[in-house]
């Protein structure tokens, strides 16, 4: 079966909505993820990628996100006191339909929603979309030093495949090693069940903001 790239449509969940992101979302995205703690372990190329002004962030975002080739989403809250508020971004990209391959990445959230249903449901929606369009392998990467992201990816049920050495440049010019994970279509029934169980634990409770952490937790 040859995979087909999904259209850039809105994906509705119980706790979040994934909406195709445009440049108009960027000021709200800066308010959500424009914090040093988001970048300190590798996002955006690491601490040197952080921009402390909205103008700087908008210029950085223009070349960082895969606008042309990826399905780039803004993540917003569904229900509760924060209905409609943008809390992050994630992307399904690097499509290779002939190999049934795609990649989930460029993911970051407002630290106040770490540990909520947001990440689990975002992955649930994206994985369901990808496998539903015939993709057989979804890759997820993290900077090898980013223990928080690696723990979060492992909790999804992804398989750790190893370290790709000197894989990508960081914003400071150094080279990062990447921790490589995958979820294949054979894994999807079990991964889906695990994610549904995690989401069921939040049932009836909308996403509520937590206090801004001063250090990244190990299990977002």
Automatic annotation (TrEMBL):
Keyword annotations of the record: Transferase
Gene3D superfamilies for this protein: 3.40.630.30
Molecular function terms from GO: acyltransferase activity, transferring groups other than amino-acyl groups
InterPro entries the UniProt entry points to: Acyl_CoA_acyltransferase (IPR016181), GNAT_dom (IPR000182)
UniProt-listed Pfam families: Acetyltransf_3
Domain (N-acetyltransferase) ranges: 16-180
Coiled coil: none
Lineage top rank: taxon: Bacteria
UniProt-listed PANTHER family: BLL6696 PROTEIN, N-ACETYLTRANSFERASE DOMAIN-CONTAINING PROTEIN
Name by which UniProt lists this protein: GNAT family N-acetyltransferase
Organism: Marisediminicola antarctica
């Amino acid at each position: 079966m040859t995979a087909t790239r999904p259209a850039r449509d809105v994906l509705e969940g119980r706790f979040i909505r994934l909406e195709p992101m445009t440049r108009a979302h960027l000021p709200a995205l800066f308010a959500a993820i424009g914090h040093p703690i988001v970048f300190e372990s590798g996002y955006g190329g690491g601490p040197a990628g952080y921009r402390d002004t909205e103008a700087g962030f908008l210029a950085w975002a223009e070349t960082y996100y895969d606008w042309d080739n990826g399905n780039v989403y803004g993540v917003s809250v569904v229900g509760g006191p924060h209905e409609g508020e943008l809390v992050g971004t994630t992307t399904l990209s690097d499509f290779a339909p002939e190999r049934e391959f795609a990649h989930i990445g460029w993911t970051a959230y407002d630290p106040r929603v770490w540990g909520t249903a947001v990440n689990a449901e975002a992955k649930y929606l994206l994985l369901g979309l990808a496998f539903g369009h015939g993709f057989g392998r979804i890759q997820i990467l993290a900077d090898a030093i980013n223990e928080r992201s690696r723990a979060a990816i492992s909790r999804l049920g992804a398989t750790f495949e190893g370290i790709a050495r000197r894989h990508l440049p960081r914003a400071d010019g150094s080279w990062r090693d990447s921790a490589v994970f995958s979820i294949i279509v054979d894994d999807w029934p079990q991964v889906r069940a695990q994610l549904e169980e995690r989401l069921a634990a939040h049932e009836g409770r909308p996403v509520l903001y937590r206090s801004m952490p001063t250090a990244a937790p190990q299990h977002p």
